[in-house]
Amino acid sequence: MKRNILATLFLLTALIVNAQKAPIKFGKVSKEEVEMTTYEPDTSAAAVVLCKYGRFSASDFKFTRIERIKILKKSGTKYAEFIFPGRENDTFRGRTYNLVDGEVVEDKLKRESIFKERVTERYFRYRVALPNVKEGSVIEVETSTVGLPTEWTFQRSIPVKHCELLLEESNYINYRKRMVGYEPIDHSDGKRFIARNVPAFKAEAYINSKENYITKFEFDLLSVNFPGYYESFTTSWEAVNDRLMESDYFGSTLKSGGGYLSDIVKEIEAQNLSPIDRAKAAFEAIKTVKWNNEIWIFTSGNLMSKPFKEKVGNSTDINFMLIHLLKKLDIEVYPVVISTRNNGMLNPFYPSYEKLNYTLVCAKIDDKNYLLDATEQELEFGMLPLRCLNHQGRIVTNQQGQWVDIIPSFRDYETVFYDLQLDENLTLEGEVNYSRTGYAAYDFRKKFKKYAGDEDYLVALESKHNGLIIKDFSIDNAEEISQPVRDKYEVELKNKVERINDMVMLNPFLLEKVNENPFKLEKREYPVDFAYCRTKYLVSNITIPDGYTISELPQAIRIVTPDKSVSVMIQHQQKFNKLMTVYKFNINKTMFLPDEYAQLKLIYEQIIKKHAEPVILKPISDAASL
Question: Which residues does UniProt assign to the signal peptide (predicted)?
C-alpha cells in the first residue's frame, strides 16, 4: 500500500512538472510541420498558428514569446511580417523553414529586417520581416522584453492550434489584466492560460476594429514597488491625465509659447472676425502644414516652431499648432486624446495610458464643443477622419480631464442623376451628374487627388465599369471644401442592356447597381459600425426609343425600420416615352447591435434583389397584340 501511495505521488508530481513544461522550443521544428499541407479544422485557412507561447519570469522580469506559423497558401505569406509593441532593448530571433530535396532547410532572420520606431517615451514598435517565405514554409519568431506586454492575443485572423500564456507571480509588479473577445479559454488557473483550436476571427464590413472583439488580454501596469523604489502608473484616468501633462512631449509642449505663429495671429486679428470665424481661419492656416502620416500621441519635439517652419509634422505636432494658434486668438481650447479606430476603443472603466495614440483639438465656442483635426486638406471644419471616429476621447487639462463623445456632425450624402437616351442599338447616351457633400465629398476629393490628372482618373473610371465610354468630363468645387463636389460626365454605355428575342431588358440602376451584400455571416457577434450616417439618392431618367413601349415595371418597395434607423425606397414609373426610377437609401444611425444584424442583412438582400429586376421593353406591335 505504501509503495502504491508513493508511486501515485510520484506520478502526480511528474504530471504537474510536465504540465508546466513549455509547449514549444525555438528551433525545434519537425519535418511533419514543414510537410503539412492543410489544417483540417479550417481547410480554407491561408496559414495557421501551430503554437504561440508567452512567459513572464518573476525572477528577471522578462517576458519571452515564441510564435510558430505554417504557411498553407501563397496568400498566407503576409503573415511572415510581424508588428510587435515593445521596449527599447528588446531582442529578436527568427527563422524560416522550407523543404528542399526532402530535407528541412532554415533561413535566419537578419538584423536589417528588424525595424524600430518610438511610440511613447517608454514604448516602441518593431516591424519584423522573415526571409524566404513561400507557400509551405514554417516560420517562427522569438522575442524578449522587460516587463509585461501591453496585450496578449489568443485569436488572430488565421486559426490558432495552441496558444499558452504563463504569468509567474511577482510581489514587485502590480498590473491589471482585462479580457476581451468571445472565444473561450480552455484552461485557466490564475497564472497559466491555454486556448486550443481557436477559430480565425472573421472580420466583416463595417467593423470599427477587430481589436475590440478578438479574444485577448490587455495589460496595464499599475505600479512598480521594489525595495527603496515605488512608481505609480495608470491607476485611474485622472492619473493618465497627470502623466500626459508631466510629459516633455505633451504637457511641456502644450505650455510652450506660440510666438512662431505671430504673423498668422496678426493676419486673422486684422479681419475682426467672430470667434467661430477666427477658429475657422486658424484651422485653414494650420492645414498648410503637411501631415507626414505618422500617428503618435506625443509631439516630435519640445517646440513646435521647427515642424511649423519645415511645414511638416506628425498628427500631434499639427494639432498642437492649432491649439497654440487658437489660444493666441482667445479661443478656449484643449487637447483630446483618443485611441484611433484600428487601435480599439477606450474603456471608461479600464484606464490605459498605452492605448492612447492620437490627439485631437476641442475648441469651445459659444458653449459648443468643436472637435477638430487639421491633418488633411480635405477635412472641413468640425469634420474628423474615419480613423478618429471611435466613440469617446479624453479632454486633457491641468485639472482632472473629462470624457467627450465623438459624434460625427457630417453624413455621407451622394446624389446621382441620369439623363440618358436608349437607341435602337441598345446603347445609352447622355449625362451622368453627381453631387456629394460631407464624407462623400471628402472621400471623393481624397481619391481624386491620388490620380496623376484628369485623364488618369477617367481611364480608371472606364476600367471600373465595363462598357463605359466618357466623352467629356467636368468637376466643380474640387478644392472648395465648404461646397458640394459636383462632377458631370457625357457618357456612352454599351453592354448594359440585353435583348432576348423581342424583349429588351433594361436595368435603370446602371453604374449604381448594388450586386453584393456586405453582410455574409450567419450570425455576427460584434456590432455593425457605419461610423457616420449615410444617404444615397438616385434619379434615373431614360428615354426609350420610338417603336418600343414599357411592357413590365418592377414593383415598388418601401422599407422603414421601426426606429427609422434605416429606410429604403425604390419606385419606377413611365411618363410618355420616359422611364423614371427613384432610389433612396438612408442609414440614420451609426451603430447597430448584433441582435439587429439579421434585419440589416435582410434589407441589403432586398435591395440587391430589387436592383437585379429589369424593366422590360417590347416593340409596340407586340405589346398591342397582348
Answer: 1-19
Q: How many Cα atoms within 13 Å fall on the side-chain side of residue 427?
A: 9
pTM to 2 decimal places: 0.88
Quick one: pLDDT band at residue 225, thresholds 50, 70, 90? confident
3-state secondary structure labels for all residues of 499-560: EECCEEEECCCHHHCCCCCCCCCCCCCCCEECCCCEEEEEEEEEECCCCEEEEECCCCEEEE
Beta bridge partners of 368: 365
Give 468's DSSP letter: E
What are the tens digits of pLDDT across the range 580-605? 999 999 999 999 999 999 999 999 99
Rounded-to-integer distance, Cα 48 and Cα 39, Å: 7
Distance CA 313, CA 305 (A): 11
Burial class (CB in 10 A: 0-12, 13-18, 19+), 49: buried
Report the DSSP beta bridge partners of residue 491.
Answer: 430, 470
Determine contact, residues 508/539, Cβ cutoff 8 Å.
Answer: no
Q: Which residue has the cell 450586386?
A: 515
**Secondary structure (H, E, C), 193-231:** EEEEEECCCCCCCCCCCHHHCCCEEEEEEEEEEECCEEE
Separation between Cα atoms, residue 309 and residue 264, nearest integer Å: 13
Say if residues 521 and 201 touch (Cβ distance below 8 Å). Answer: no
Residue 391 grid cell: 466613440
Q: Quote the pLDDT of residue 622.
A: 56
CA separation for the pair 219, 355 (Å, rounded): 10
Residues 174, 225 contacting (CB under 8 angstroms):
yes
Strand partners, 550: 617
Q: Are 567 and 586 in contact (CB under 8 A)?
A: yes
Q: Do 589 and 565 touch, CB atoms closer than 8 A?
A: yes
Give me the residue label for grid cell 479632454.
395
DSSP code string of 412-461: EEEEEEEEEEE-TTS-EEEEEEEEEEEHHHHHHHHHHHTSSSHHHHHHHH
Task: Determine how β-strand 566-575 pairs with β-strand 578-587.
Answer: antiparallel
Query: Which three cell numbers mark 485?
Result: 463636389
**Cell 453624413 belongs to residue:** 411
Residue 425 neighbours by CB under 8 Å, 6+ apart: none
Tens of pLDDT, residues 42-88: 999 999 999 999 999 998 889 999 999 999 999 999 999 998 888 88
Task: Please report where in the chains the cell 419606377 appears, as a residue.
Answer: 572
Of residues 415, 418, 416, 454, the one with CA closest to residue 438: 415
